[in-house]
Amino acid sequence: MKAIRVTAFGGPDVLRVEEVPTPTPGPGEVLVHIHASGVNPVETYIRAGKYARLPELPYTPGNDGAGVVQQLGADVSELKSGDRVYTAGSISGTYAEFALCKKEQVHPLPANVSFAQGAVMGTPYATAYRGLFQRAVAEPGETVLVHGASGGVGTAAVQLARARGLRVFGTAGSNEGLKLVREQGAHEVFDHRVPEHFELIMKATGGHGVDVIVEMLANVNLGKDLPILAKGGRVIIIGSRAPVEINPRDTMQRDADVRGMILPNTPPTQMASIHAALVAGLENGTLRPVIGKEFPLDEAAQAHQAVMAPGAMGKIVLVADKN
Ligand code: NAP
Known about the structure:
Layout: E1 2-5, E2 16-19, E3 29-39, H1 41-47, E4 64-72, E5 84-88, E6 98-102, E7 106-108, H2 115-118, H3 121-135, E8 143-147, H4 152-163, E9 167-172, H5 175-183, E10 188-191, H6 197-204, E11 210-215, H7 218-225, E12 229-237, H8 249-252, E13 257-260, H9 268-283, E14 291-296, H10 300-307, E15 315-319
Parallel strand pairs: 8-9, 8-11, 9-10, 11-12, 12-13, 14-15
Antiparallel strand pairs: 1-2, 3-4, 3-6, 3-15, 4-5, 5-7
The structure holds NADP nicotinamide-adenine-dinucleotide phosphate.
């Protein structure tokens, strides 16, 4: 099969297509014929060798994919060959024509959802769901600010929060991004290029403050997030790329919480619950993943450059085969 292989950590050009043996599923495993794979910022940090957990070289990147079941391990009875599925994790990597997965990493992909859209569920939607509902415990009727709402996690968070009955504010850094965020269901949108957007957000809450902030770039925003929190407010840190200074008093006055998360810390039962909710949301049309750009598998290097560029418009996917 064709697969992207990384033989040394480095820039995007270390992502090269090679012919490698197609894996065979063992007990508890599933081989998925990948039609689309999701490209996430974390895969660029790993590729560069700048991440806490690094794979052994050589490796094939990717946790997120969608396609059809090709082959099952002898003891796997929950799925059958030809089933449409998405993956949330993979043993062999999803930037490839086929990906070996544990059966728990494979979830049904409803017929109304494209493979490209399915490739968005494993990391962005699961992260948005966990951040909003399991870590920040966002409740219907509360106000949530999705700070960085135009990207993969952000568009997912806006759709999820709106469907759950929250009042949703979202930010983006381009006019197209702001339009996109509104289309996903945000009640109000703000431009994070404008320094006064914090004051504008506070004003939009009528001075009450925001109950939950889903933060994609904490190193830039955390110090200014805290003063716009309501009493009992929570910031959930999803993305941060450097240290940041805060005034701890801003948390004291509000009984506020700053909570962090990384998706791999999710306990298995909570992960199963996340995907049960996400599959239901896909089935009933509440969740409509937005695909910003598609690249063929052999342009993985360009996809890695695009995912780190400003002006996000939903999700970037690699297409290994025609949908
Ligand atoms: P993405 O698709 O590249 O989107 C990045 C988002 O950040 C865009 O909406 C972008 O907006 C926004 N942004 C840029 N400057 C900003 C600013 N000053 N303030 C607020 N937002 C700003 O990436 P993603 O997949 O959504 O991931 C977002 C972040 O979360 C990344 O750092 C990623 O590594 C991290 N992440 C963490 C986990 C976890 O488990 N903790 C899981 C998934 C992702 P514009 O482009 O419109 O300016």
